[in-house]
Amino acid sequence: MRIVLVGPPGAGKGTQAAYLAKNLAIPHISTGDLFRANMSQGTPLGQQAKEYMNAGRLVPDSVTIGMAEDRMRQEDAAGGFLLDGFPRNLAQAEALDAFLKADGMALDAVLDLEVPEDEVVKRIAGRRTCRTDSSHTFHVIYSPPKQEGVCDKCGGELYQREDDSEDTVRKRLEVYHSETEPIIDHYKAQGLVVTISALGKVAEVTGRAMEAIAAQAA
């Protein structure tokens, strides 16, 4: 199966992508992983991306598209894949359409994870990270530390990252609405979009997603 996963920041895309890819026995292809792999391996595309990032500039679509196409051509993706974070805008979606068509392939579903905006803000703005070890994370509502402001694991100070502040989250949502949401209409016109609620426990959301994908593919 070939699936695109979309949804606003805080919808749980990364978590769901990992579970869905495992259940469907297809590789999980995320934009973040593509960038890290290409830059660490020193590929031409990775070097280009690094130059843009070091200069404080946005990496152009052509570089991101090139990385995604290279990854989708790899042997383990021959039977399908789950794309997470790509396509991020209409230009990338149109490039993906052209790539698949040229190779005689097509998407099976575009899974849209739906979360109310206030819930997104609550999920992200409530995160707290340990200054001593950033892998230690908590949430003021969903997984609070035993002592406020103190990491349970090492006693380090917990703080709110700048990226997790409410103002930053709302700006990220504005970007999502303006740049990424249009791809949902693009794929709706192709009859590919299935929308599910991303509220509830992780396993519940995964179950809904698997049912929606199965129904779309039937």
Automatic annotation (TrEMBL):
This is Adenylate kinase. Pathway: Purine metabolism; AMP biosynthesis via salvage pathway; AMP from ADP: step 1/1. The keyword Zinc does not apply. Keywords: ATP-binding, Cytoplasm, Kinase, Nucleotide biosynthesis, Nucleotide-binding, Transferase. Consists of three domains, a large central CORE domain and two small peripheral domains, NMPbind and LID, which undergo movements during catalysis. The LID domain closes over the site of phosphoryl transfer upon ATP binding. Assembling and dissambling the active center during each catalytic cycle provides an effective means to prevent ATP hydrolysis. It catalyses: AMP + ATP = 2 ADP. It is an enzyme of class 2 (transferase). The keyword tRNA processing does not apply. InterPro entries: Adenyl_kin_sub (IPR006259), Adenylat/UMP-CMP_kin (IPR000850), Adenylat_kinase_CS (IPR033690), Adenylate_kinase_lid-dom (IPR007862), P-loop_NTPase (IPR027417). ATP binds at residues 10-15, 127, 137-138, 200. Catalyzes the reversible transfer of the terminal phosphate group between ATP and AMP. Plays an important role in cellular energy homeostasis and in adenine nucleotide metabolism. Residues 30-59 are annotated as: NMP.
